[in-house]
Amino acid sequence: MADIIDGKKSAAVVTDAVSEAAGSLHHEAGLQPGLAVVIVGNDPASHAYVGAKSRMAKKCGFNSMQYTLPEETTQDELEQLVEKLNADPSVHGILVQLPLPGHLQSEPVIQSIRPEKDVDGLHIVNAGKLATGDLASGLISCTPAGAMLLLRDRLGADLSGLNAVVIGRSNLFGKPMGQLLLAANATVTMAHSRTKDLPAVCRQADILVAAVGRAQMVRKDWVKPGATVIDVGINRIDAPEKGEGGTRLVGDVAFDECADVASAITPVPGGVGPMTIAMLMANTVIAAYRCVGRPIPKF
Ligand code: GUN
C-alpha cells in the first residue's frame, strides 16, 4: 500500500509561513497584503472554490476582497473591474476564477491583469519567465507550484534521472507543471488526449501527474511499481451508497487500485487541492513583499 501524501498538512505548513510573513510585513512596513478574487456567474463548484480562497486569505491576515458578478456581466464590465483593481495600490493579487461563462473570453481578461498582480501565474510574462527557466522573478501558477512542493517533500528538489509523465497540456496546469519538472531536472513527457498508447507511456513514469478531468481514468496497470502519483483531478460522481442523489469527489486516478502499486499517491480530496489555495496565499504575500522592495519569503 502506497504512502498517502497529506496535502492538508503540507498546505498548513505553507499557510502558517504565509501568515507569519504577512504579519511581519504589516508590523514592519505597515502593509497588509490584499487579494481580490473575481467570480462571474453561478457555477456552484466555482463558488465553493472562491469561498475557500477568500476565507483562507482572511485567515492569513490579508485584506480579502471578493467581487461576485452576475452571469450577464459583459466583457467590458469585467475588463473595467480588472483595470480598477490593477490601479488600486491596496490590491497586490488579482484572481479571476475560471472557467468564465460561455459568452466571455478569458484570455483577454487574464492578459489585462498586471503581471506583478497575476497571482494565478497565467499572464504571458509570468508563463514566459517560467518557460525560460526564471523561477525567481515572476509568479508561478498555484496548482503546479503546490504539486511540486508535495514532490519536493517526498523526493527532494533534484529529480535528476527520474522520468515524469504529465497527462494534460492546459495553460493553467499541464504546461507549467512540465516546466517545473524540467527545471528540477526530471525527464519530462507531456501526454494528452492524442497520445498513442497512453497506458504504456504512463508505465514509464517514476512521477505520474494526472490532470485530465476524467474521473478515475488512470488505472492500476498504467502505474509503474514504486511510482509517485499526483492526482490533480476533481470530479464529482454519483455515489448511490450515500442514498438517492448522493455524490462524491474523486480524482483522475482510480485511487484504491493505484495505491496498491504506487509508492506514494495524493488523495482526492485532501491532496493537491489544499495546496492550490496555499500557493495562492504564498503568491499574494510575495507580490506584496515585492511592492515594498523587500526580499521575498521562501515557501
Ligand atoms: N479554476 C480552477 N482552478 C483555477 C485556478 O487555479 N485559477 C483560476 N483562476 N481558476 C481556476
From TrEMBL:
<dbReference type="InterPro" id="IPR000672">
    <property type="entry name" value="THF_DH/CycHdrlase"/>
</dbReference>
<keyword id="KW-0554">One-carbon metabolism</keyword>
<feature type="domain" description="Tetrahydrofolate dehydrogenase/cyclohydrolase catalytic">
    <location>
        <begin position="5"/>
        <end position="120"/>
    </location>
</feature>
<feature type="binding site">
    <location>
        <begin position="168"/>
        <end position="170"/>
    </location>
    <ligand>
        <name>NADP(+)</name>
    </ligand>
</feature>
<keyword id="KW-0521">NADP</keyword>
<dbReference type="InterPro" id="IPR036291">
    <property type="entry name" value="NAD(P)-bd_dom_sf"/>
</dbReference>
<keyword id="KW-0560">Oxidoreductase</keyword>
<dbReference type="GO" id="GO:0005829">
    <property type="term" value="C:cytosol"/>
</dbReference>
<dbReference type="InterPro" id="IPR020631">
    <property type="entry name" value="THF_DH/CycHdrlase_NAD-bd_dom"/>
</dbReference>
<keyword id="KW-0028">Amino-acid biosynthesis</keyword>
<comment type="subunit">
    <text>Homodimer.</text>
</comment>
<feature type="binding site">
    <location>
        <position position="234"/>
    </location>
    <ligand>
        <name>NADP(+)</name>
    </ligand>
</feature>
<dbReference type="GO" id="GO:0009086">
    <property type="term" value="P:methionine biosynthetic process"/>
</dbReference>
<comment type="function">
    <text>Catalyzes the oxidation of 5,10-methylenetetrahydrofolate to 5,10-methenyltetrahydrofolate and then the hydrolysis of 5,10-methenyltetrahydrofolate to 10-formyltetrahydrofolate.</text>
</comment>
<dbReference type="Pfam" id="PF00763">
    <property type="entry name" value="THF_DHG_CYH"/>
</dbReference>
<dbReference type="InterPro" id="IPR020630">
    <property type="entry name" value="THF_DH/CycHdrlase_cat_dom"/>
</dbReference>
<dbReference type="GO" id="GO:0035999">
    <property type="term" value="P:tetrahydrofolate interconversion"/>
</dbReference>
<keyword id="KW-0378">Hydrolase</keyword>
<keyword id="KW-0658">Purine biosynthesis</keyword>
<comment type="similarity">
    <text>Belongs to the tetrahydrofolate dehydrogenase/cyclohydrolase family.</text>
</comment>
<feature type="domain" description="Tetrahydrofolate dehydrogenase/cyclohydrolase NAD(P)-binding">
    <location>
        <begin position="141"/>
        <end position="289"/>
    </location>
</feature>
<dbReference type="Pfam" id="PF02882">
    <property type="entry name" value="THF_DHG_CYH_C"/>
</dbReference>
<comment type="pathway">
    <text>One-carbon metabolism; tetrahydrofolate interconversion.</text>
</comment>
<dbReference type="GO" id="GO:0004477">
    <property type="term" value="F:methenyltetrahydrofolate cyclohydrolase activity"/>
</dbReference>
<dbReference type="InterPro" id="IPR046346">
    <property type="entry name" value="Aminoacid_DH-like_N_sf"/>
</dbReference>
<keyword id="KW-0368">Histidine biosynthesis</keyword>
<dbReference type="GO" id="GO:0000105">
    <property type="term" value="P:L-histidine biosynthetic process"/>
</dbReference>
<keyword id="KW-0486">Methionine biosynthesis</keyword>
<keyword id="KW-0511">Multifunctional enzyme</keyword>
<dbReference type="GO" id="GO:0006164">
    <property type="term" value="P:purine nucleotide biosynthetic process"/>
</dbReference>
<protein>
    <recommendedName>
        <fullName>Bifunctional protein FolD</fullName>
        <ecNumber>1.5.1.5</ecNumber>
        <ecNumber>3.5.4.9</ecNumber>
    </recommendedName>
</protein>
<dbReference type="GO" id="GO:0004488">
    <property type="term" value="F:methylenetetrahydrofolate dehydrogenase (NADP+) activity"/>
</dbReference>
<dbReference type="InterPro" id="IPR020867">
    <property type="entry name" value="THF_DH/CycHdrlase_CS"/>
</dbReference>
